[in-house]
Amino acid sequence: MLMIEGLSVSFGPRRALHSISLEVHSGEVVALIGPNGAGKSSLIRAVSGVVPVEGGRVRTNDTDLLAIPPLRRARHLAVVPQAVSMPPAFTVWETALLGRTPYLNFLGQVSAGDEQVARAALAKVDALPLVARRVGELSGGEQQRVLLARALTQSTPILLLDEPTSNLDLHYQVGFMEMVCSLAKSDNLAVLVALHDLNLAARYADRVALLVDGSLAAVGTPPEVLTAGHISEAYRLPVEVVPHPFAGTPLVLPGD
Ligand SMILES: Nc1ncnc2c1ncn2[C@@H]1O[C@H](COP(=O)(O)OP(=O)(O)OP(=O)(O)O)[C@@H](O)[C@H]1O
Ligand SMILES: [Mg+2]
Questions:
Q1: What residue spans in the chain does CATH classification 3.40.50.300 cover?
Q2: Which atom of ligand 1 is found nearest the CA of 214?
Q3: pLDDT tens per residue across span 76-128
Q4: Backbone phi and psi for residue 148, each to the nearest 5 degrees, phi listed first
């Protein structure tokens, strides 16, 4: 379980996050939505200890995640950042194994168990056929799947994903979100995922958190948060919300 308590972040004199409190339960997928610049990446980066926080705490059960060294934190949470370049000369296999870094002994030796975890993670994202390829040669979507495999290889109970589907085609967007949901349930993971696609959020998230100007404007189930009122105000655009013809989940359409 991930507990974000009163988290505030500033960049210079500008406050980017205003006392954010949000819980992500084990087995739950929470979608973080909001306009460009709302603070989604800043929240994910603050929770993962990449940007300093001005106030507040991030906890999992009894562990204060921002008070422990990064390598120990990496056993609790794994991150797929929004814009990240992997070392292009590394192979997919080497990249996936990087996820085992928090568990290696002081000689940095990779065990058969580490390799097994990496292989299983690559299989989950359908990337086993890519193992010998260099990361720099992969397409954007293939790279995104390898990044997820690297995060899964970390074997953490918390997963933070920053727009993981932005480079994926429709097939892999749906496949990716279905996989993340089923992993959350099967492995009891707490997943916080920043998404721009409101319809993916509606379809796959257990709960949705709407961030606007660094503050949480609404948190709840997809039908509670994805209302025409919330969305048109947050995105400054008239929208219509209709039920998905089969799933019944909210579908957000730009209106006029
Ligand atoms: N390292 C930084 N230094 C200064 N300002 C920053 C930094 N990182 C983010 N910001 C600012 O904080 C605000 C929130 O940015 P953030 O990247 O968190 O938004 P976002 O919701 O992820 O947006 P997007 O949908 O475009 O990814 C923006 O105004 C941004 O310019
Ligand atoms: Mg972002």
A1: 2-76+156-254
A2: 14
A3: 999 998 777 778 889 999 999 999 988 887 777 889 999 999 999 999 888 99
A4: -65, -40
